[in-house]
Every structure is written in structure tokens, then in C-alpha cells.
Amino acid sequence: MTTVGRGAGYLLVGLVSGLVSLLMLPLLVVGVLSTAVGGLGLVAFPRMVVGLRWWAEWHRGRAAGLLEVSVAARSTGLPKGIGAQWRQAVRGPGARQDLRWLCRQALTGIPAGLIALAGVGGALGTVAVTAVWWLFPEGEPLRLLGTVPVTGWGAALALGAVQTVVAGAVAWWAVPRLARRHARSCLTALAPSMEVQLAERVGELTESRAGVLDAHGAELRRIERDLHDGTQARLVAIAMRLGVARETLPEESGALAKLLQEAHEGAEEAMAELREVIRTMYPPILTDRGLEGALTAVAAGAGIPAEVELGELGRLPAAVEAAAYFVVTESLTNAAKHSGAARVVVRLTRDEAGLLIEITDDGRGGADETRGTGIVGIRRRAAALDGTVRVTSPAGGPTAVVVELPCAS
Questions:
Q1: Are 217 and 317 in contact (CB under 8 A)?
Q2: Residue 348 φ then ψ, to 5°
Q3: Helical pair 284-300 and 194-226, crossing angle rounded to 10 deg
Q4: What is the DSSP code (8-state) at residue 78?
Q5: Which residue, 109, 130, 124, is CA-closest to 170?
Q6: CB neighbours of 29 closer than 8 A, spacing ≥ 6?
Q7: Residues 311-331 pLDDT 10s
């Protein structure tokens, strides 16, 4: 009886929710049409779609509870911006899936609930009306089993028992099966599609990538500080002592003086290599001045008139800042060496997708990656962050390098 009761409760609630779902369909249509009324639907309709998602998730939870299975909750939030909200409401696969389920719920919830009402209600109703058969008028007696009139207590008890057993048997057999079937149908209809699962996976990877980039940037800064303040400082001290030792040695020291000279020169070479490693790993100027100050300094020393235009960049992961710095530095170096340009424009902007870097010069064009123009290195740095590089350099110019670096968090 517990199974019958749970199934009956599920289906009877589904009967009410089916009626509500039937009313929600024209409301959604009104929400779409209201876009013509001062653009009201641009704000209202996405929120109606979110309400539909909550409605669907509530039914999904009920179905999972009946079947005693667990399901992962789907996102019920709205992105920032009216445009993004509208695109999610109109084009999002989840919104279309919820709308299809709403139509199914209206079409299946009502008849399934009526069947449960007929089965359970028939059994309980028969018991109730049989007890008061004598209240019915003589000309219109109570009829059980469809057509048999009840004229006395004997007929009432016998016919009532038979009808109660039949209705109860139907409810006992049909209601739990129908409830489970409807619940499975609900879960199937609202199960995330491959497209939605892929989008969610991409979102998870984007978040995890942002965390990895932050951790990687912090580690780069730590290593840079350790090398700059520790190893490099020690090499400087060693080189200075070796230099002092060379100066204090007598001229007739011979082999010892030569060894000191080689050691001194080796220490200086090691310092130069270490500085280059630090610069290519995480430029100290980024720590000192930030990306804006670093790019301004690079442009000022580019050897070619360069203009830097920066949008609202916000906080960028250190790895993205370093990659942007190297992209701009390499592009300006290429322009100064190969393009013959009189002016270069560097523009950095940020949107929902990430950081957009555009370097345009008015040079002769014809950039060829196979001739060591540095574009291969730019592509590698962008690819390390799952970014993209587009180079447009027709003969006669101009040359445009467009780099997109994902950095959404």
C-alpha cells in the first residue's frame, strides 16, 4: 500500500502541475510578444525561462525521489547582461529542453493524474457512497458497477465490495507502474543532452583553467623573486669578488690570473643568462609597473612610433599578462626590423571570452612565418593558454596580428 500511496501522491500532484504547466505555455508566449512593448520581454522573458527551469527542476527532484535515484542539479542562474540573458533564453539548449518538457508535462501529467484519481478515488469513493446509499432519491438510486441500482443493504454491501475490490486492484496494479513510468519519462526529458554536458564541461574546464593560471602565475612570480633576490644576487657578489681578486693579483701571476679572468667572465655570462631566463619566465617590469606600465615602456623603446590603447582590462592572471607582454614585445620587434612601418598601434581590450590583443602597423606587409619573423613564437605562447592567433599581412601592407587569450574566470 505504501507503493500505491506514493505513486498516487506523485500522479495526483502531477495532475495539478499538469494544469499549471498548461497555463504556463501561453504566459511564455506573452513574455516573448512583450518584447514589442518597450522591450519589456528582453528583461521579463529570460526570468520567465529561469522560473521554468526552477519548475522543471522541482519535478525532476520529485521524479528522482520516487525512483530513489540521485540526479545532479542543473544551473538555474542568469548570466550578466541583457544580451547574454536573452541569448541563453532563446538559443540555450537547456531552455529548449525545458520548453519541450513543459509541453510533455501538460500532455501527460493531466491524463496520468486522472487515471490515478479514477483508481484510488474510485475505491475510496465507493466505500463512501455505499455507506449512504439510502440518501439517494427513489427515482435515482445509487448505481454500482456502472448500471446496477442499489435498493437495499445487501445489494449495497455486495456490489460495493465488488466495485471497491475492482477499483483497488486497478489502482494497486496500474498506479505504481504508471507513476514510475512517468517519473522515468520526466528524468529522460530533463536529462542533460550531450550539447549541454559539453557546455558544462567547458565551463568547468574554464574555471579550473583560471585557477591553474592563477596558481601558475603566483608560482612564476615566486620563482622570479627567488632568482632575482637570491641566485642573481649571489652571482653578482661572486662576480664582484672575482673582479676585486683580479685587480689585486700581481701582474706576474700568470696561470692564476687567467683562471680568475675566466671565472669572472663566466660569472658575468651566467648573470646575463639568468637575467634572460627571468625576463622570459616572468618579466620583472610586470611586477614593478603592471601590464599597462610595462607595455608603455616597451612601446617607448620600440625604435618605431608606437601607440598603446588599453581598455578596461581588470585583473588578469599572471600567465596571461606575461603572454600579452611577450606578444606585444615580439610584434613590435618584428615591426621595427621587417615592416618598414612609420607607425604601430597596439590595442588591448577584454570581453566575456578573454583578452583581445591587436597590433597593427602601416608597413610593407608580406610577413612570412617560415622566415623566422617571430610569429611562430607568438603562436606557441598563445597555444599554451588555449588562445588563438590570426595574422593578416598582404603584400603592400598593412600587417595586423590579432591574439585572443582566454582568461574568463
A1: yes
A2: -125, 125
A3: 90
A4: -
A5: 124
A6: none
A7: 888 778 777 888 888 888 888
